[in-house]
Amino acid sequence: MTQLNDNALRLLKQRYFEGPNDSWDKLVNRLIDRVSPHNNLNLATGQMIAQDIRNLVWLPNSPALVNCGKRRAGLFACY
Fold this sequence. Notes:
The chain is mainly alpha-helical. 51% of the residues lie in helices and 0% in strands.
């Protein structure tokens, strides 16, 4: 897994983490858990996407990070 630098971790803590014990892995897992059922992703595909996000191959937009795990979350920047 790619290591995030101090600036990235500070920004994640300020904007996206849900508490002091949150982490990049937990945030990625919440995102995949939220998106997978709505896109009919199987477990292997969800894990592959999560790995790409963890390795910074692909990053979701801010609304997806902010709203992942919330009940009526919007995951897109525009509609």
